[in-house]
Design goal:
Layout: E1 2-7, H1 9-14, H2 16-28, H3 41-56, E2 60-67, E3 70-79, E4 88-96, H4 105-119, E5 124-130, H5 134-141, E6 145-155, E7 161-170
Parallel strand pairs: 4-5
Antiparallel strand pairs: 1-2, 2-3, 3-4, 5-7, 6-7
This protein binds coenzyme A (COA).
Residues 26, 31, 33, 94-96, 101-107, 129, 133-135, 137-138, 141 line the site of coenzyme A.
């Protein structure tokens, strides 16, 4: 049974190695998630360590999927800090371990992030992902709207530049 739940900053700090393993697995399998191939365990843990102050301050939420007590998926919700955007948040680090994909976990994590956004009073979510990637398919399947493509936006982990698609979703508050 896989559970989805929020990790606070203290728990995230205690589980940096597991979070790092999920991020490294995604990069090793070619996902365009801000890092290049060869991401070390130390650098991956460093990324998550860098999120701890924001988690502690409530500027971000980290949701994880746990199977057998191990973290097998992540998603982050980052609340827009701007005074004119108290209704907006960004979704990031939507990752499911390669051994656990196509079983509905991505959909469940994304749904949990949307529920957490609603509970926090955020009604407009935004994100971007490599065009044509698994993420691109997931967001379309979950009712997100693609509103633009930028050619050559980011390097794929193995080098070449790839197009990015930008998405948004307006959450009903019901
Ligand atoms: C994107 C990702 C999180 C999807 O996780 P997942 O658990 O496999 O997704 P789900 O099983 O919930 O898929 C839900 C739906 O999304 C779509 N989908 C997901 N992965 C897909 C793929 N590789 N190809 C086509 N459609 C896909 C399908 O419609 C799927 O429904 P179906 O399985 O009934 O056909 C996962 O592939 C991943 O971690 N990829 C690497 C990291 C990444 O690219 N993250 C997004 C960057 S922002």
């Amino acid at each position: 049974m896989t559970m989805i739940r929020r990790l606070d900053a203290a728990e995230a700090e205690a589980r940096l190695a597991e979070l790092a393993a999920v991020l490294r697995d995604a990069v090793e399998h070619g996902a365009s998630v801000n890092f290049m191939a060869g991401l070390t365990a130390e650098d991956a843990a460093g990324f998550w360590r860098g999120q701890l102050p924001g988690l502690a301050a409530g500027e971000k939420h980290l949701l994880v999927a746990e199977a057998g007590g191990r973290i097998v998926g992540t998603v982050m919700l980052m609340f827009a800090p701007q005074p004119n955007a108290p209704h907006r948040a960004e979704v990031g680090k939507m990752l499911v371990h390669s051994s656990q994909r196509r079983q509905g976990l991505g959909r469940r994590l994304l749904g949990a992030a949307e529920t957490a956004a609603r509970a926090a009073g955020r009604s407009l979510l935004m994100l971007d992902t490599e065009s044509g990637s698994a993420g691109d398919h997931l967001y379309r399947a979950c009712g997100w709207t693609a509103f633009g493509q930028v050619p050559g936006h980011s390097h794929k982990p193995d080098g070449p530049l790839a197009e990015t698609t930008f998405f948004y979703k307006v959450l009903d508050q019901g």
